[in-house]
Amino acid sequence: MTELTLGAYILIWPALTLWVLIKICRGVWKDVIAAKKENRELV
């Protein structure tokens, strides 16, 4: 593997992890908003 390929491979994981974390946070936030709208607890 060249240095560029290895560097790209290593740096893609934090980006993928951040993307997944954002998706999870968006889903939780939508659930919080829906629970407030229906006047109920989230858990």
Give the radius of gyration.
18 Å
Oligomer category: single chain
**Roughly how much helix do the residues carry, as a percent range?**
over 70%
Instruction: For the record, give the distance between the C-alpha atoms at the N and C termini, rounded to a whole number.
Output: 48 Å
Counting DSSP E segments of at least 2 residues, the number of strands comes to: 0
Number of helices: 1
Task: Profile the largest sheet.
Answer: none
The chain-level structural class is: mainly alpha
Following the backbone from N to C, one meets helices and strands in this order, namely H
How many domains? The number is: 1
Uncertain runs are: none
Q: Strand share of the residues? A: under 5%
Morphology call: rod-shaped
Overall mean pLDDT stands at 94
Question: Any overview of this molecule?
Answer:
This protein has 43 residues and is an all-alpha fold. 81% of the residues lie in helices and 0% in strands. It has one domain (1-43). It has one helix and no strands. The longest helix is centred in the middle third of the chain and has 35 residues, at 3-37. The radius of gyration is 18 Å and the shape is rod-shaped. 0% of the residues are buried. The mean pLDDT is 94.
